[in-house]
Amino acid sequence: MLVYNATKQQFIDDVRANVITDRFERDEAVMAQVRSHSEGQVMHGLFPKKVTDAVLDGLNDHEKLSMPLPTS
Known about the structure:
mainly alpha
């Protein structure tokens, strides 16, 4: 059994970070820029927009999951 020795907020923060990291690792164009350019150059490429997109997508996903179920 996996035991997670952290607060609830730390757990949530770790999950969010992993979700965003996973999104970047699947984006070959961003990963190619990260692998082949300096940090300064990466910040002028696709990376900043993709960070914003990933955060907004994550918030949207969270909102969908947190909506109450309709009652019948």
